[in-house]
Structures are given as structure tokens and as C-alpha cells.
Amino acid sequence: MHPRDLSDHVAYEAGRGIEEVARELGLDPDDLVKLSSNENALGPAPKAVEAIEAYAPSVHTYPKSSAADLRERLADRHGVTPAQVWLANGGDGALDYLSRALLEPGDSVLVPDPGFAYYAMSARYHHGSVNEYPIRRADDFEQSAETVLDHYDGERIVYLTSPHNPTGSEIDRADVETIAEGTAEETLSLVDEAYVEFSESPSMTDLLADREDVAVLRTFSKAYGLAGLRLGYAVVPEAWADAYARINTPFAASEVACRAGLAALEDEEFLEQTLETAAWAKEYIRDTIACPTWASSGNFVLCDVGDGTAVAEAAQREGIIVRDTTSFGLPGCVRITCGTRQGTKRAVAVLNDLL
Ligand code: PMP
């Protein structure tokens, strides 16, 4: 007895946990600076922590109505109906729901190269095949409708990432519209806005007011500091909003996650501090690191260190964990998440000794 043929599938390579690295190096986790997973350097939103603690004695019961409350709150925020908000176990879970709702055997999807690995993985899990469009280093990772449409061949989902991980580039709203116009009616253009809070550009959820072929992905993992709770969502076109009830896993987001999410949305002070810290760190890294970098609209900076694998490994031995971007299809670079003032300064000092 065996699983089905999974030879096309690869395991998701998450950034390594701080405890795991500390154990390996024989160091105290408090002595490590982890800037490899684009987590929030300030921790979780304090109001979310209060909500989690308050709800803890009730976790033996099945979820109540917080998912409905959160969907309503998010719908208000994005100018859509609650049915158009597909809550999930992180943005990753929302990607799976989109794959489940859209893909049939034989369908294909179009993903960016370099890009976030889970787009392709989710499509393959759902019997889709994967084609790529380039985001070229020679163009400073600029994204354009022209390149996407040049590589488009009737795929069912076109994944766009803005801000883009791991490069930090953005795609213009006009380009998203051009892509949606230039693709078949049955093609969804999905704008992944996991990092949009850190960008000066507004969210593109308002495109859904006029379009039936665009969806937007959002997460509480980054700006709201709730990566461990796993809470994300897709905002989908009105016409197929009711598919959610037919495809979602029961209790798609936990009661704790939904309560924390609702509280985090109220924590404006925390969001402000988060954005301020990230803006400071981006400027500090770009001004101080002894190698070329690219402008970033996310909470991270891509740095051209020459040999990303060697530099990330050497930095780790000094207690600084950054992300080698080879696994994104981008060798030669590391991605540094914006840390606290202290952590960022220490990380850059160690990296500069290695460069
Ligand atoms: N999209 C992008 C571009 C990401 O970098 C991430 C996080 N690694 C996600 C989506 C998913 O994040 P999460 O599942 O934590 O919401």
C-alpha cells in the first residue's frame, strides 16, 4: 500500500526555526538574530495576544462565530461581500482553496520565476501543471504585463506577487488590468499581496468592483505578526464566492486565529510601529551593507552577496540567520528580513565582515 505517485512533488522548504538552529550551533536562541522568514520583528500585535489569552480556556469547544465576524469586518474593509472573503489556514491555505476551486486535471498555471514556491506546489497538489514567466535580474526584477502575457498560454491561474518575494519589486495596477484583459475569461489573475502593508501602493482589492477575473491574497502573518497562528484569506470575485462553502475544510481558520485577527485589525498603534521599524531597517540595510541591493516594497531586502549559500551558512555560524534565495530560483543573493534596530545592526555588521 502506497500513496499516489508523488514524484513530481517537492517538500516546502520553510525557513528553519530559531530553536533548531540554536541547538545545532550550541547557542542560546536569545543570542540568534533570525531574519530569514519575513516575520514581524516586533512580535505579535499586543491586542491579538490579549485576545488569544482571553480565549484560551475555551479551546476545547468547536469554533463559534468569529470567522463570520472576521469575514464581515474584512468585507467592509475591502468593499466586497463577506462571501467573497475566503478565510484559510494562512495565505498558503487560501492558495489551496483557489486551486481546489479552479483547477481540473489538465489545467495549468503560470508562476513567476523567481517566486514564492507554494504557488507551483499547490497547483501540482491539485493536478495542475506549471509554466513560468521570468522576473529578470537584468531588468532589476521589474514586473510588466508584457512579459507575463508573452509567456501566457491559456493557463487557468496567473500568479502575480506585489510586493514580490524575494525581490521586493511591485507590479503596477495598470499592468494587472492589462494582464486580466489580455487573458481568457476563464483565467484568474491572482495578486498576492502578502506584503502590501509595507508598500506605498494601495491594495488592489478594489479591482474586484469591476472585474470577475481578479482575486487578491492577503495574510496576517507579516504586518500583524501572527505567522504562527496561520490566518490568511483570498478576496474573490462575487460570481463564484459561493464555491467556498463547497470546497473549504471545516473550520477553515481556527476560532483563536479569527479572534486574534479581529483584535490585530484594531491594533493600529502596533501596525504603525511595525511599518516604522521596517522602513528604518530597509534604509539601514541598503545604506550600510557592503554589497548591491534592490529597492524593496516588502519587509525585507534582497542583497547581491555573490554566493548566497556560502554567505548564509557563514552568517548562521555567527548567529545571524538570513535566507539564501537559491530555493526561490535566485542563486547569488540573500534576503534579509527587516529586524529590530539592534538585530538589524548586528546582522549587517556580521554580513559585512563576511563580504
Ligand atoms: N505569499 C508570499 C509571497 C509569501 O512570501 C508568503 C509567506 N511566506 C505567503 C504568501 C504565505 O504566507 P502565510 O501562509 O504565512 O499567510
Question: How would you summarize the topology of this molecule?
Answer:
Elements: H1 18-25, E1 33-35, H2 46-55, H3 66-78, E2 85-88, H4 90-102, E3 108-113, H5 118-125, E4 129-134, H6 145-151, E5 157-161, H7 173-182, E6 188-192, E7 214-219, E8 232-235, H8 243-247, H9 255-266, H10 268-288, E9 300-304, H11 308-317, E10 320-324, E11 333-337, H12 341-354
Parallel strand pairs: 1-10, 3-4, 3-5, 5-6, 6-7
Antiparallel strand pairs: 2-8, 7-8, 9-11, 10-11
Helix pairs in contact: 2-9, 3-9, 4-5, 6-7, 10-12
The structure holds 4'-deoxy-4'-aminopyridoxal-5'-phosphate.
Which characteristics define this entry?
single chain, 355 residues, alpha/beta, Aspartate Aminotransferase, domain 1, Aspartate Aminotransferase, domain 2, 2 domains, seven-stranded mixed β-sheet, four-stranded mixed β-sheet, 11 strands, 15% strand, binds 4'-deoxy-4'-aminopyridoxal-5'-phosphate
Walk me through what this model shows:
This protein is an alpha/beta fold and 355 residues long. It contains twelve helices and eleven strands. Helix 7 links the parallel strand 5 (157-161) and strand 6 (188-192). The radius of gyration is 20 Å and the shape is globular. 46% of the residues are buried. The model has no long low-confidence stretch (mean pLDDT 96). Bound molecules: 4'-deoxy-4'-aminopyridoxal-5'-phosphate. The site of 4'-deoxy-4'-aminopyridoxal-5'-phosphate has 12 residues, from helix 4.
